[in-house]
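Q: Hi! First time asking for a complex rather than a single chain. Here are the components, and I think there are two in total. Is that enough to go on?
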Amino acid sequence: MDATLHDGGRTPSPPDNGPPLREYRGKQAIASMSIDARDKNWYIDKGFEILMFFCGISAIVFVVGIFLFVFKEGMGFILHDMNMGEFFLSPKWRPTSLNNPTYGILAMVAGTAAVTILAMAICLPFSIGAAIYIAEFATGKTRETLKILIEFLAAIPSVVWGFIALSIMNPFIIETFDVPMGLGVLNSALILALMAAPIVTSLAEDAFKAVPDTYREAAEALGATRWQTIYKVVLPAAKNGLLSAGLLGVGRGFGETMAILMASGHSINIPTSVFDSFRALTATIAAELGETAVGSPHFQSLFAIGIFLFFITFLINMTADFIVRGVHKG
Amino acid sequence: MVNHKIEVRNLAIAYGGKQALGNVTLEVYENEIFGIIGPANSGKTSFLNAVNRMDMMRPNMDVTGTIRINGLDTRSWRNVYDLRRKIGVVFPLPVGLPLTVYDNVALAPRMAGTAGSKNNLDELVERCLRRAALWDEVKDRLNHLGSLLSGGQQQRLTIARALSQSPEILMLDEFSIAVDPVTTMRIEDVLKELKSEMTIILVTNLVQQANRLADRTAFFLNGECVEIGDTESLFNGDAKDARTNDYIGGKFG
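A: Yes, that's all I need. Here is the structure of the assembled complex.
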C-alpha cells in the first residue's frame, strides 16, 4: 500500500532513488525549521525564570531570617533564666523585681486568647453576613458603595482605633453597664472585631465570588430558595476561603498591638469577666522593649514571648492547612 | 387525545431589548421526548430558561407571551420554587456540586424536608443513581466529592440529582457536549426508559441525537421556531421548510 494513504498524504513520498525515509524526514525538518523572536530571546526567558525563582524563595528567606533573629535573642533567656513551668503556668509577670524576678505569661495568654475569641465571636457573624449580602444580594450602586465603605474601614490606622477605644468606647461602657472602668476585654474585643471586620468581609466576599454561578443555577433549578442555595451550596463551596478569612481574623487578634495596648487597660491579671482589664502578649513587648537593657534577661524574655507568638501563628496556619486538606479528602 | 403538558403561546425572549427568541408557539405532550435542534445562538437555552423561570435570576432577560404547564400559566405560579421542583434540569457542562456524591443526590429531598429516615434516603439515592446508570461506578465511593468525578460521571450525577424529586418534566440542555460517545449512549438509553414517567425536553445540537430519541422535533434558527413536526417525517425529508431540510441534511449548521 502507498505511504500517502496512511497519513492522508501529509508526508510527501520520498523521491525515487532518494535517501531512506527517516533521513529524508530529518533533513526536511531542519530545512523547514524557522527561527523567530521567541527562540532568539531565550535568555530573557531564562533571566525571568531566575528572577521569579528568587521572588518565590524570598518569602522563605525572610521568614527564616526573622525567626533566626528572634530565636537568637530569645534563646539566652530560654536556656539560662527560664523555668518552663513558671513561664507557661504562672500569671505573675514581674521581670523588674530586684530580688525575685518572675516571668509568667499565663495571664497575658489568657487575656489575649479571651479577647481574640470574643472578638471573633462578634466579628465573624457580622463579616460573613455582610459578605453574603454584598456577594449574593446587593447589586449596582449599593454594592459598590458598600465595598468602598468597607475598604475605607480597613484603612483606619490602629492607633486611631485605640483612640476611639479610649475616648468613645470607654465612657460608653462605663455608662451602659455601670462599671468602674471601660477598658478591658469587652472594649478590646469590640475594637478588634471592628478592625478585623473589613478584611474578613472582603476575603469572605472573594470566597463567595469564587463560587461558580453554575452551582447557584443548579441549586435554583432544583427548586432551592435563595437562602437554601446559599446555605446548602454556596457556603460549603466557599468553606476553604471562609476558613482562611476567619483564621486571618484570629491572626489579627493575636497580632494586633497598638489598639489593644490602649483598649485593654494593660494590667496583668487573668480576666474573669468581660469588663476585666488584661494585658496582651504583643502589647507587653511593645510597651517594655524600649525600657529594658539590651541583653538583660528581661530583654531576652520579651523575645521568648515573640517565639511563643511565632509558634501560635504557625500552629494556627498548620491547623488551617490540615482542615483544608481534610475537606479535600472528603 | 394527547395531553398537553406544556403549552407555549407567542413566547418572545429579549436580553436588554435585543430579541433572542420570538413568536414561539408550541405544545409538548405528556410522556414524549420533545427534541429541539438548531445551531448555536438560536434561542434554545433561552427557551429552557423561560420554562422554569430562570429569567428571575437574570435582570436583563425579558420574557413575554405565556407558558402553561399542566394548564397553569407559569407567571401565575406564586411560588416559583414549586414550579422548579417539578422540572429537572441538566446543563450542558456537568455541574457536580462540591458535596459528596451522596449529598449531591440527597440535596433536593433534604431541602424539601421529605428526606425521611436514613434508610429511606439511602434507598432514594441508590434508586436515582441506578436509574442514571451511575450506581455501579460510584457505589463504593458515595462519600467522595461529586465535583471530582469524571465529566461523564458528573453528568449522570446531575441527572440522578434531577431525578431525586421525581420531576414531571426533565429538560436536558445539550447534555452530551462534555460527555464521551459511550456515556452519551448510556444516557440516551436512560432517557428512553424515563419517558414513560415524565415529559422530556431534549435540546441538542446533534441532529442525529434528536433523530434517535425525540418523538417530535422543533427546529430553532436565529431566534425563530422554524418548524415543529414528527421526528420521523422531518428526518424522512418531509419538512415543510427548506431550511429545516438543509439543516437536517447537513447543508449548514
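A: The longest strand of chain A covers residues 93-94. Let me know if you'd like any chain examined more closely.
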